[in-house]
UniProtKB/TrEMBL annotation:
This is Fatty-acid amide hydrolase 1. Keywords: Hydrolase, Lipid degradation, Lipid metabolism, Phosphoprotein. One of its GO terms (biological process) is fatty acid catabolic process. The gene is Faah_1. The keyword Calcium does not apply. Belongs to the amidase family. The keyword Lipid metabolism applies.
Length: 548
């Protein structure tokens, strides 16, 4: 007991130190901004913050806007937003030094002078990548991830790291070290996760471009919940070297790193900058595919598949309306829309995704929590995860007639033999080929899909892991998928929600109905999807949706 108490005390001391460092960083930001304002009282911060990324980068590169003005405008705004939402975990003071370094000789990078924010789990030299775990405090990274190296070579200035949920395997944004991050649009709502700090900071206007990761919707949830845009590329289009994932070595559900910004043109500019020789030489596992300008700027009419529901998670009235209204606008603009029949989403969710991620019987996942202070809202999950296979099978059998979805989850969390895992990988490949065959039969260019929304209340994502079905499908298939906000929840949507029952009418469906309530005025997005390696086409489609 004494040993446990000592260890517990030691962990709390680390948490306290990390929070102090966070506060000191914010104090440094405040001091730096105050100093700049005193020296440059005539600089109009508001007009700088109102520029889009393409406008801003043009002014920075042609010299009409000094990088210092932009930097301190965003440091000031980021400070305001983190005071409101608790989204920043660390201020990177070396960004001030990077700013002072003279212009590089020769051609300026596409992101010259642009301040960028970075998710906690993306390595930055000299800074922790905690993933919300106490054991990772005071473990500074030896080098930048490839993504951060390329950003710097393109002239960008990474200036803050942002908050995540403990372990990243969640679409909320809370951990014991830095606490809960709040949605900038409504503080009682989650910003989404796991790139929730990014969503809150960019949604609040404190960053013009940020980077996160996505293994089940972790870029797309925060973008949709905070009313901004994001792109989850094909898993290997951008380098993941130096990016820490929630479950190391897991290959059934494909993770990706991607950008988040207020608009689609910013995402396109970012991809243009990243898909360069530096990226391909620093990580030779990334295919050397530069940004395809021709595809992105094409104005050819598109053939677009669409569906309003996956028949697993019943869409909220606003989600359904978002797809319908977007479909109508696209048709009026001369595009062809074709219904796409989605089948077996329940099988994909349980058998490919849950089973794939926890194929070792949750051993790797549980290992991360050894010696940690808190397991968040995962109490019952931990108990189930730790249970032996025979007990998971028994409980699954007992639950089947009453709560079929719980039964499936329990069955999917059993440990697999190598033989079973290989069979699963084969089945996932076959399923992907079938999905592509259906896509090709309909001769589609892209697909319009629902995106979970509006933002759920804080604490709800922990109870609603089944609601990731709309997003995790495209991690399983490894297709590029972007999110664009298209509408807001209306009084009519709220009224219609009273009749929401879900497809299973179980505890999860009742909880989701509660989580959606009271959301008038909050943004709702759609997902835009393309085939693997077609990021430019995906962005072109997103741009079309945004424009309309």
């Amino acid at each position: 007991l004494l040993l446990r108490w000592r260890r517990w005390k030691g962990l709390w001391a680390k948490v306290k130190a990390a929070r102090q460092r966070q506060e000191q960083g914010l104090a440094r930001m405040e001091k730096a901004v105050r100093g700049f304002r005193e020296q440059h009282p005539s600089v109009k911060m508001v007009s700088i913050l109102s520029l889009s990324l393409p406008e801003l980068s043009k002014k920075l590169r042609d010299g009409s806007l000094p990088p210092e003005h932009v930097f301190y405008a965003y440091v000031g705004k980021a400070l305001q937003i983190t005071r409101e939402t608790n989204c920043i975990t660390e201020y990177m003071q070396e960004s001030e030094t990077q700013l002072q370094q003279a212009k590089p000789p020769g051609k300026l990078g596409l992101l010259y002078g642009v301040p960028v924010s970075i998710k906690d789990s993306i390595n930055c030299q000299g800074h922790d990548s905690t993933l919300g775990f106490v054991k990772n405090i005071n473990q500074p990274m030896a080098e930048d991830s490839v993504l951060v190296q390329v950003l710097k070579r393109q002239g960008a200035i990474p200036f803050v790291k942002t908050n995540v949920p403990q372990s990243l395997i969640s679409f909320d944004c809370q951990n014991l070290i830095f606490g809960q991050t709040y949605n900038p649009l409504l503080y009682t709502r989650t910003p989404g996760g796991s790139s929730g700090g990014e969503g809150a900071l960019i949604g609040g206007g404190g960053s013009i471009l940020g980077f996160g990761t996505d293994v089940g919707g972790s870029l797309r949830f925060p973008a949709a919940f905070c009313g901004i845009c994001a792109l989850k590329p094909t898993g290997n289009r951008l380098s993941k070297k130096g990016v820490i994932s929630g479950i190391l070595g897991q290959k059934s559900v494909v993770a990706a790193v991607g950008p988040m910004a207020k608009d689609v043109e910013s995402l396109a500019l970012c991809m243009r900058a990243l898909l360069c020789e530096d990226m391909f030489s620093l990580d030779s596992t990334v295919p050397p595919l530069p940004f395809n300008e021709e595809v992105y700027s094409s104005t050819q009419p598109l053939r677009i598949g669409y569906y309003e529901t996956d028949f697993f998670t019943m869409p909220s009235p606003a989600m359904r309306r978002a797809v319908r209204e977007t479909k109508k606008l696209l048709e009026d603009a001369g595009h062809t829309l074709v219904p796409f029949e989605l089948t077996n989403v329940d099988y994909v969710t349980f058998n490919f995704c849950v089973r794939g991620m926890f194929a070792d019987g949750c051993a790797s996942f549980l290992k991360k929590f050894e010696g940690e202070l808190e397991r968040g809202s995962m109490g019952i999950f931990f108990w189930l995860a730790k249970s032996p296979n025979w007990l998971k099978t028994l409980l699954s059998w007992i639950a089947k007639p009453f709560v079929p979805r719980l039964s499936h989850i329990l069955r999917s969390m059993r440990a697999n033999t190598v033989d079973e895992l290989w069979s699963l990988h084969h089945e996932i490949e076959e399923s992907c080929h079938q999905f592509i065959a259906q896509w090709k039969r309909l001769n589609l260019d892209v697909m319009l899909c629902p995106m979970l929304g509006p933002a759920l209340g804080i604490g709800y994502p922990g109870k609603l892991s089944v609601a990731v079905s709309y997003t995790i499908l495209y991690n399983s298939l490894d297709f590029p998928a972007g999110v664009v906000p298209v509408t807001m929840v209306t009084d009519e949507d709220e009224e219609e929600l009273k009749g929401y029952q879900g497809y299973f009418r179980d505890w999860w469906d009742r909880t989701l109905a509660k989580a959606f309530r009271g959301s008038v005025g909050l943004p709702v997005a759609v997902q835009c999807v393309a085939l693997p390696w077609q990021e430019e086409l995906c962005l072109r489609f997103m741009k079309e949706v945004e424009t309309l």
